[in-house]
Structures are given as C-alpha cells and as structure tokens.
Amino acid sequence: MYKRQQPYCQAKSGDAKHVGGVLVTGQDANKPVERREPNADMTTEQFKEAYRNKLYSLYAKTLEAASDKEKYLTLASLVRDEISRTWLQAKKLRAQQQENQEKQVYYFSIEFLLGRMLDIHMINLGLKDTCERGLRELGIELAQLREEEEDPGLGNGGLGRLAACYLDSMAALELNGHGCGIRYRYGLFEQQIIGGAQYEFPDDWLKYGYYPWEYRAADEAVEVRFGGAVRLQANGRIVYIHENYEAVSAVPYDIPITGYHNNTVNTLRLWSAEAELAKQACAAGQTDCRNTLQYKQSLESISHVLYPDDTYHEGKVLRLKQQYFMVSAGLQNILRDFRKMNLPYANLPDKVAVHINDTHPALAVPEMMRLLVDEAGLSWEDAWDITVRTMSYTNHTILPEAMEKWPEDLFRTLLPRIYMIVHEINERFCRELWDKYPGNWEKIRHMAIIADGYIHMAYLAIAGSHSTNGVAVLHTDILKKEVLHDFWEIYPQRFNNKTNGVTHRRWLLAANPKLASLVTETIGEAWLEDPCRLQDLTQYADDAAFQKEIAEIKRRNKQVLARIIQQKNGIAVDSDSIFDVQVKRIHAYKRQSLNVFHIMDLYQRLLEDPDLPVWPRTFIIGGKAAMGYYIAKRTIKLINSLAEVINNDKRIRDKIKLVFLANYNVSLAETIIPAADVSEQIPTASREACGTANMKFMMNGAVTLGTLDGGNIEIREAAGHSNIVTFGLTAPEVLQYYRQGGYNPWDIYHSDPRVKRMLEKLVDGSLSSDREDFRAHYDSFLHHGDQYFVLKDFAAYVAAQEIINGKYQDQKVWRRMCIHNIAHAGWFSSDRTFAEYAAEIWRLNEAAISCQDGCEQPGFSPIAKRLGTMLQ
Ligand SMILES: *Cc1c(COP(=O)(O)O)cnc(C)c1O
Fold this sequence. Notes:
872 residues, Rossmann fold, 15% strand, globular, disordered N terminus, pyridoxal phosphate binding, glycosyltransferase
C-alpha cells in the first residue's frame, strides 16, 4: 500500500564510477561541478583587513577591546555586505525575469523557524574557509562567535522549520521562491526549567536588533484594514465601500535567503504592524487622538508575539488579525508587482503561485477575491477562476482539535467585507454540491465552509485552490480516505502527496561538518548539489575502515553534547553509552510518556538485577509545551522528577541516565542530532502527519526507533527494513479503534503487572512528594480511555527497545545500519520535495517534464532544465 515511486533517487544509481581513486558519479565524472563562489578569490589577508576596518567603523574599538557580541556583529556585517552585493545582482536578474515573465512562487506561512544564519550564509557564499582561517589568525574562534547569534524563534516547531528548509531549497535550486510571514516582536517563549517544571520567559530576539540579516523596506508599506462596516453603492455596477475601519501599516522587513554557490538571493518578507497610518489619521482629524498611545499599542500588538494564547476571546481576535494582516499585506504586494508587468489579470496564474502553508494563511482566498473584484473590478467568475488557479494548499494535520475554525460573529465584526466574500464562496460551493448530491442535506452541511456558526478554514482552502497536498504518503492516504474523503470525491484531481524534506545543507553540511567532510572524501562532493548521490555510500556499509571513521565521528559529536549536558544540567553522562534522543514539541500524541514508561520499567528491572545485560544508555529528551497545555507541562515535570530519581540512584551504577535539555530550538537541535544514536519517533500511528526530525536524525546516522506513522514508513522503505526498528499499532488499527470508540485500558492494567506498577508509581509519591503532580496522567491513561494508546503499545515498545539494545552490542551491525541510513537520506532532502512542488503544483516548468534532449533549445530556462533532470 505504501509503495511509492522514487525516480529522484533511483534514476542514476548505477552510474557511479571511480576516477583517480575518488568515486564520482554520472556525468560529473568528466565535468567538474560548476562552482560560482563569489569570493573564492578573497584572500585571508584581505579578510583580516576588512574585518579590522569593520570593527573600527562599527564600534570604534580595537580587537582587544571588543566583546564577543561585537566581534560576531562585525563578522555578520561583513557577510551582510557580501549578501547585499549578490542580492543587488539577483534583484536585477529578477527584474529581467519579470520582463521575461518567469513565474514567481510565494510561500505564505504564519511561522518561519529560521535558526541562526551566519554559518549558512558563509557556506552558501563560499566564504566560510576564508573567514575561519582569517579569524583564527586574529586569535578568534569562529565557533565561539557563532554562539552570539540570536536564534529567531518565529515558529513553534516542525511547521515553521519546514518552511525555513523550503526557502533554503528554493534558493539552492535557483527557483524564484519567496517567503511571506510576520515579523513577531517576540518569538516563541524561552523555556527555563525551575524545580523540574517549565517556566516561560519572553523571547526577546530583537534585543540587539536583527541588523545583519534584515532590510527594512518602509517605502513598500501597505495598509491593512480591520473592523468598520461595508456599504453598497450602485453606480451602474455594485461597489462595496468599506468605511470606519481601523488602518494598520504593514511594513516589510526583507530577510535575504542565499542559495548554495549559485549567486541566488531570494527574499523572506516579514511584515510588521506599525501605527504610522493611525498617526496620519489623527493629524487629519479623522480619529480621536486622546488615546493615541494606547491605540498605537493596540495596533502594533498584531505583530507582537507568535501565537498568542487563544484560550481567551482577546487572544482569538488577535490571532485572526495576524492571519488577515499577513495575507492582505502579502497579496497587495504581489499584485502591485504584477501590475508592473502590464498584463491582464487572466495571466496572473501563469506568473504567480501563492502557496498556503496549513490553514493559517487560508484567508488568502477571500482576500485575493476582494482585491480582484473590489479593487481591480473583475467579475466574480473571472476572479474565482484566477484565484483557484493561483492558490495551492498544504494540509499538515488530521488532529481534530488542530482543524482551524472561526466563530462567524467574531469574523464578521473583524473582517466585514471578507466575511461577505466567504459567505458568497460558501453559497456557490453549496450550490455546486447540491447539483452533485441533490437532496443530500446531511452531506452538504458536513462539507459547507460555513456551518453551525463556524467558518472552516481547511474547507475554504480546498475549495479556493487547485491543489491540496498531504505531507507523507500515509497522511495523504488518510486525508483521501477519511478526513477529507468527501472533498476528495468531488475534486480527486486536486489531491496529491508531497512527502516533507529537510535541507541537507543545514542538517548535515553545517550541523555535522566532520561527517560531511568524511562523506565528501569518500564519494566526492556531488552529493551537495544532488543529495541522492549519498547512495554511493552504500558500498562502504561493510568497509571496516569507513565504519571506524563513522563511529569515531559519532563519538566525538557525543563528547561535545556530553560537555553541554554537563554545563547545562550538571549531569555527567558517558559518551560511550547509547544516546537515545527524543526532541520535539511535548504533546500527548507524540508520546513522551511512552518513552518515560520504558525508562521507568528499565530502571525497575535494573534495581531487581543490576547485572542485567543492557548497554549503558543516556536518554535525552527536550521540547517545549504550549503555555496553556496542562498535561504536556506536567509531562516535563514527570521527566525531570524521574531524572532526579534515576540520576541519583547509586544502585544502578550509572547504567542509565535521563536528561531533559531545556529550551529546545534549532541551534540546540543542530548540536543534539549529530550526537544521537537512537532517534525516537514514537507517535500514535496516524497522528503525526509526517515529521521532519526523523529525517534529520537519519541523515546524521541515527537509527530510528519508531511507529509506522508519517515519514517513518518512507524512511523504512528507503533505508531498508533491517535498518530501522518499528513497533506498535498501525494506522489502520488505530483508526479502527477510534471508530469503535477506543479500547479498554483496564484490560492492560490488569494483565500486565509492569503497567500496573508504573501507573501506581505516578500517584504513590515515589516520583514527587506531591501525589497529585501526575494524577492527570494517571487519569488520562485509565479513566479517559488512553486516547493515544500508550498502554496498548507499551509491551511492543519495550520489545523494540530490546532489539535496539541487542543490535548496538554488535558494533559492526550497528555501524552498517547507520551508514545505510545516511546513504538513503538523500530522498528526504527538501531539494527533492521542492522539485516536486515546483513541477507538479506550481508548474514552474511546464515544458521541462517532457523535455528529454530538447533542453538545449534556445529560450529554455536553466531552471526548467535543472528541474527536468532532477525529476527524470
Ligand atoms: C525539526 C524540528 C522540529 C520538528 O520535529 P518533529 O520531531 O518532526 O516534530 C521541531 N523543532 C525544531 C527546533 C526542529 O529543528
């Protein structure tokens, strides 16, 4: 059922040749990879001089007097200069392209989890070696400066990180792809662990400004309107007049996204809410100016913080405001650019693709309609056709509680004109359904965009776009067969799958430089531009010398992480133990509690028999819990309480350690993942749409221990069934249970004494002096039906852990598994994912797919050519 075609990574696997002792592949054997390193010719001496001058001009200080922060900012400024130079060229090129009318993609996302940028830009621009050498000669360690960069936390987790990986790949593939999002003043909170529990502190990422990596473009600000009322005026045709609204300035900040060695610079445009217009209105006597300061604050609060708590009404309003703010500013900007081309609007879908990443930007559909109908004067029918052909949508979750819907009243008050448009879209959509299913009210009500007082954002996105994709084969399958089955029935051609990917440049080349160098020494550097070439490593899977080097690199990465754990947590861990890692948002469906239960059980067994044949193990867990998510926050406390007990128990002779690493973010991920032996990917089957951390771990040679869910299934296909360990209920089984109303956890409680013992430990004071601390967990497992099948999968999980323990003891077998994982990680590069999006959804290369040898024809864009070869 999960057989997938894999043309991207299989096409040329037979072509590897050895040339001069180095393995090179395909055409590359004869032709060196074309490198365009803009500053390959800058000498170390020139760098040092430029660095000193920059430091003087920025801070009027000598090297000796400068702080690390100032040294970092000096380096970043030099890199910025280099970006500016390249960017200017890229903009010129883009202006030409617009004349030649190449299609532009705009990826709308409420989150972009970029991570630090210094390293990536230096690598992409070909500057890293020169900078590192030059700094060393000045007595500065690059690694130290790197730590000075703030990690902009403009996302919660996977969704935002995915958007950032895609930006990287679009630039690397030289696609005209840009991001559109919000410049939150405060990112996701900073997590601190105090007394074992999570405390949230504001993430003041702009404390020192984001000067090196952003460019404010105030002259391109646009106005976004909220509230007010709509009046109809008939002057030959009906005109909608929006009045008494509140106007906010959306001011763009552009973050350059550099491509790998290709002189491409794309743009991530983040919008910031400012009250400039309010000031003007006040000056012009249009508004009451007595409370201007308060008013200004209220307007600017729109881009104040990522995902404000929506438990209260106020929070909900703010969140809807954010969504409309981003979409309206983004689309106005796109249409302004489009108009410069002097083309009829009917051509918009050939020149522009707007991608809706999850439902948060789904208001792009009615906003595009507003701009085309109200402002450009198109007919509803024409505008609708253009909108549908321009938009595409990715679904990221099937969790019912994550399916966004907005109360009609709130929506109508905040966005009166948009509400009218959604209403009209719904009317027409229901009429279409009526023609298809005459008299079937039940079905129509079930599919309606507005029903029972709510507006369903996913339905709006599907109805208003030409493509809806899931993010893993299984996930797309579940969308078609279950969650969105009715929609799939009417629009089967709109549904497709695009399995997620991660950029191998950040997650392997930058995060694990030692492994990256070994790979390049072994198979050449073709993998950097064509990650599928990693497959050439398979022939070294049993090579003793190669295995030894792989093991040595892993050991050194583990030593680095062990030092960090010592510093941060004050816990001494053995870098020869198995590093067993689960890092991701804390959520019931991700089942950190299953991990905890296995650790509790293993601990118990070690107490009973200290000579138990288990390889020493360090369990590492990290992740943030949403601020208002009680049980997830308790899970963090549970992990820390258990850690306290285990790490201080001399009887188990350090055989196991448990560490919770606080404030998980991209930078921490970049240190943890290269050091992992075991990648814990254990969600309840069917609940994790795809996952992306699973791919990052694989790329770094960790072995997945996972359920048959999301991307894990495809990882198993790619790496080979013997190179990953899977367990537990399958998705069809879980879905069957859900249909039946669940299962009875008491059966397991009574039949498995281990389960009973552990559950009792949650509430008998063994882990915490407050017996109520973990009562909510206890109740969720026993009294609320164990919704996520933790107890049900427990025995299978323990058995799978035993397999891991066994395999690790035979180091030859283990290293072989690691190598196979690295070798087959190429397919999970976001370069592959993006080539698929570009070809199949945005159709950037209409001609390229069919182009086999005609690619040399004049006028054929190099991008199309490149995509053509990638997808053959
Ligand atoms: C990759 C990544 C995620 C996503 O992890 P999953 O395990 O796929 O949910 C979340 N946060 C950060 C910081 C990441 O780098």
